[in-house]
Design goal:
Blueprint: E1 2-4, E2 35-36, E3 53-59, E4 64-71, E5 75-83, E6 89-95, E7 100-104, E8 113-119, E9 122-130, E10 136-144, E11 209-214, E12 220-225, E13 229-236, E14 242-248, E15 253-258, E16 265-273, E17 276-284, E18 291-298, H1 301-311, E19 325-329, E20 333-340, E21 345-351, E22 355-362, E23 369-375, E24 380-384, E25 393-399, E26 402-410, E27 417-426
Parallel strand pairs: 2-4, 19-21
Antiparallel strand pairs: 1-3, 3-10, 4-9, 5-8, 5-10, 6-7, 6-9, 11-18, 12-17, 13-16, 13-18, 14-15, 14-17, 20-27, 21-26, 22-25, 22-27, 23-24, 23-26
Length: 430
């Protein structure tokens, strides 16, 4: 990937190549090859910046670009991404530990990404990738709420374009226009539908609380916390394609998510919410008559990590605590058959000489595999879903000697089938 920096109003930094971050395990490894959005670590503190900070990046196929910034004091921050020429960016914001703070696809309007949140002091990584994995040039902007917006997000966004994933319509229906439903209740104070037994029920318990209803009947759910708690909020039913937005009792925006897990949504509030009333606005991008199950439960860090591993968003630890099939040292070519379901199965490959690795995940018409390749540090090297006109996956990656982890899962959560892995190594000519 090539990264470019665009000069900003206010003279925050001059146009030119952004300097790479120091080699460190930032944001769980995601930020190791990131770019400080202010050009250097010292000039990337958004809490003290005189204006927004922005970078332009060329994201090649199935890769992502990561901008780094810091917060020196509790700050309300806006993060945005906008593609050029019809590009459709998706963003993830991670804290220094690698936990996803928020994700967004189309809240900025016209396919752009937009989110506002309150951040505590620390270092953060804002990743941008293309919705359908195609090459894209886009802009990433980080600023405080008083700074100029990059997109039209925040309630006045124009009609977004249709998302077109690389899968054919048998995989995932084309996303319709994002038209979130605004609760008619006017904020949390008037919400009449509560998760749990009612507005005074502040105990989430081990399993949390949940309710199910279509958006046509209920487009906002309330819940109350009686003690400070970090929480996880989910909305599930892929046929509806739900979007959830969290507000406090005063109607202040806290977080939003669309498509955290396939077409289902999830918000992880890793910083404890204070006691009080909250409400969850729910909209459906596909079918408002489909029932959506909305749940609130105590945030479980280990469950969050395992969820990322099962979807291929992160690689598992190599300490024996997670099942990994060791395929041995890759000499020239190896083949391995495995039953693959919706949770990623993981395979270890050792490479003793640098070169090109070609990986195929073949469903033979009975499956739709998705493949992810990571190095032993946890950095994603490559990703692929559909190769050409088939549902099979193909990864071609240049590698150095070392250990690599290959994750494979089914695109369709309801499917389990035999997937054939074919892995070949090509070394440079002497």
């Amino acid at each position: 990937m090539k990264y470019y920096t665009r000069a900003l109003a206010g003279g925050l930094f001059a146009a030119g190549l952004a300097l790479p971050a120091a080699a460190q395990d930032l944001c769980g490894g995601v930020g190791t090859n990131g770019q400080w959005i202010g050009g250097a670590e010292a000039s990337s503190d958004i809490s003290t910046a005189g204006n927004y900070m922005e970078q332009m990046a060329l994201v090649l196929m199935n890769n992502q670009y990561t901008a780094l910034f810091s917060v020196s004091a509790p700050t309300d921050v806006r993060v945005e991404a906008e593609g050029r020429g019809g590009g459709d960016p998706v963003i993830d914001l991670r804290d220094a530990a690698g936990t996803i703070v928020l994700s967004d696809d189309d809240s900025g309007g016209e396919g752009s990404s937009f989110a506002e949140t309150s951040l505590q002091p620390g270092t953060y990584c804002l990743s941008m990738q293309s919705y359908d994995g195609s090459p894209m040039t886009g802009f990433v902007r980080v600023g405080r709420l008083e700074h100029e917006q990059l997109t039209a997000g925040g309630g006045t966004a124009p009609t977004p374009p249709t998302d077109t994933p690389t899968d054919t319509p048998t995989d995932t229906p084309t996303e319709p226009v994002d038209t979130p439903v605004t609760p008619a209740t006017g904020g949390c104070s008037a919400v009449s539908n509560y998760l749990g037994s009612g507005p005074v029920d502040g105990s989430l318990g081990m399993g949390g609380v949940s309710m199910t209803a279509p958006v046509d009947q209920v487009n906002a759910w309330g819940f109350t916390l009686s003690s400070p708690q970090p929480v996880t909020i989910t909305a599930t039913n892929e046929s509806a394609d739900p979007v959830i937005t969290l507000y406090d009792a005063a109607g202040n925006y806290l977080a939003e998510n669309d498509d955290y897990d396939s077409l289902n949504s999830q918000i992880d509030m890793t910083t404890a919410l204070q006691p009080g009333d909250y409400c969850i606005e729910v909209s459906a991008l596909s079918d408002t008559s489909q029932p959506i199950t909305v749940s609130v439960m105590s945030y479980d860090p280990m469950a969050a990590i395992n969820s990322l591993i099962s979807t291929g968003e992160a690689s598992p630890p190599m300490d024996g605590s997670y099942p990994i099939t060791d395929l041995g040292t890759l000499q020239t070519r190896l083949r391995h058959d495995a039953q693959i379901g919706s949770d990623a199965s993981w395979f270890q490959i050792d490479v003793d000489q640098g070169g090109l690795v070609l990986i195929e995940a073949v469903g033979n018409g009975a499956g739709d595999p998705v493949a992810f390749l990571y190095d032993d540090i946890g950095r994603q090297i490559a990703f692929n879903d559909d190769n050409g006109q088939t549902y099979d996956s193909l990864i071609a990656a240049r590698v150095l000697p070392g250990t690599y982890l290959l994750g494979v899962r089914q695109y369709d959560e309801s499917q389990t089938s035999l997937i054939r892995l074919v892995i070949e190594r090509y070394v440079p000519a002497q």
